[in-house]
Amino acid sequence: MKLTTQTDYALRTLMFLATQSSRSKVADIAQLFGISVNHVGKVVNLLAREGYIRSTRGVGGGIELAQPPHDISIGAVIACMESNLHLLACVGADDSCTIHGFCKLKGVLAEAERVQREYLDGVTLADIAPTARQLQLVQ
């Protein structure tokens, strides 16, 4: 599986927010990771729509996690950000190949995907979040 840049930015945004004790600005995330504010803004909108973050407008506004880090599964975030997690098209379809009736590769890849999903579903944001101090050292 290769994750899209959007998923990468979403995970980085969540990792950053997990280290913050107050609301943050999109611009702070963009600056830390060297990402455009527009890209972070798009990811923030998606994460807010999925219920991972809360966005507050106006004076004193900003973004923050909507759930505790230990309740956010990395596998779930990846699944909601990615449109296709299959290693090959045949894993997600019944007849995408001329040898689908006797091919053993599809089963092997399906099992690999299952193991990968199971593992990622067991990893939480709390497991991967850096400390606030580690992020300060990057700046």
From TrEMBL:
High-level lineage: Bacteria, Pseudomonadati, Planctomycetota, Planctomycetia, Pirellulales
Entry GO terms, CC: cytosol
A GO molecular-function descriptor: DNA-binding transcription factor activity
Key word DNA-binding present: yes
Record Pfam families: Rrf2
Native source organism of the sequence: Aureliella helgolandensis
NCBIfam families assigned to the protein according to its UniProt record, in alphabetical order: rrf2_super (TIGR00738)
Name of the protein this chain belongs to: HTH-type transcriptional repressor NsrR
Superkingdom: Bacteria
Keywords: DNA-binding
PANTHER family reported for this sequence: HTH-TYPE TRANSCRIPTIONAL REPRESSOR NSRR, WINGED HELIX-TURN-HELIX TRANSCRIPTIONAL REGULATOR, RRF2 FAMILY
